[in-house]
Amino acid sequence: MNRRIARSAPFLTPFAVAFSLAGCASFSPDGGMSPVQTSVRLDLNANAEKIVTDAQMMNAETRYRNLLKKGLTADRAVQIALLNNKGLQAAYNELGISEAQYIQASLPPNPGISIFRSSGSGELDIERQIAANLLSLLTLPARRDIAETQFKAAQFKAIGATLRLAADARRQFWRAVAASEQAGYLVQARATAQTASELAKRLGETGGLNKLDQSREHAFYAELAAQTGKARVQQTLERERLTRIMGLWGGDIAYALPSRLPALPSKLKPSVRIEMEALERRVDLKLARGELDLVAKQLGLTQATRYINALDLNASSSYSRKVTVDTASGTATIEKTRMRGAGLALEIPIFDLGEARTREAEETYMHAANRLAEKAVNVRSEAREAYLAYKGAWDVARVYQGQVLPLRKAIQDEVLLHYNGMLADLFQIIQDARLRVISNMAAIDARRDFWIASTDLQAAIIGGGMAGGESKPVSAAAGGE
Prior knowledge:
Blueprint lengths: L1 H20 L12 H11 L9 H17 L3 H11 L1 H20 L6 E9 L2 E11 H5 L1 H67 L4 H36 L27 H8 L1 H22 L6 E15 L6 E15 L8 H66 L5 H37 L19
Antiparallel strand pairs: 1-2, 2-3, 3-4
């Protein structure tokens, strides 16, 4: 038995090297989702889940439909998107692909086995050979470390995709609610204008109102009707965009939105540690650090193998048998021969000394280092910018809420008193009504902009990207004589 093992030693050598260098990497039970779920819980107070089985899909459907029944809020819209958006699930599939590549990279290369047999004229030759890529075996720990770093980068990318979707869902929720509030306000204003228009018509028939004032009242009502139609279209569009982000279809799209945006907070978030908090928590900055670490590890591997491009180790064993027949006596003699050996194939670096690959790796490292430095500067600037926009939107919204709208109401009351006292004409009432509609629409826009700016501030701190194209506000009837 020991003799047989000794004879097999040349064949077992590559396997022994492989097993000594191989790690124990294995697939995680959650597909690498643990860091993603932890980040979403801490940063968003929500749950992220990779849906694989039918049972998980049914559970997700039950959960998001229960949320829809309770009435939509910004937080619920985010949670529904995290459960139901298929694009996010595709990002989680990419994470699973990265884990599979990491596991694959941690395995030693498979050896090759070849058997050759030839016979004829009483001769039989059998040759067996096992070959393994020795360079791949020796660099296995470094390659496994690089693959693990790539897998961690994929986890940061999955976190970034989750935060980006959450921020988009929250922004679109504010836009949809603002469009709904504007449409509702214009419907009420149009109803009032319609009543005034009908009254003006009756007064004109009795001779109590001239045709000029009648035309002004009718025009104001027509303008408001057009603006109401435009606002309803915008309301439908904003709602549809929110529906798309949440991944809803069929009967689930008949959800209810709040009729009004929430009131402004009484206090702003402090700005003392905005920049430092962004540097500590921004997921894209963490990803850039990981990419720099990855390039550094790849550079080390490139320098270690710059002169060796291919190194193959092989072990062989051959068996030959020859039959010789004595013509005089007719006796057959069998000669058996066994040979064993090992070989090494090495590419000779005559033309390519690896300098180009090393220079490329060094430039790639400096590229990643400069990108990281740029990202750090930009993160601090984006945090400051987001806070300035957040504070500015709060100031503007408070001016409308605390000054403009109360003044507009006071003006309206005074104009009505003057009109009743025969001190003002109908034209002044119409002009004041137009201006009041414009102020109310602008106040809704200001509150919407504040809540979007609040979302942008959170995204500037934890990641998720800045806001995209803003929805165009619905302008009220502003025509005048």
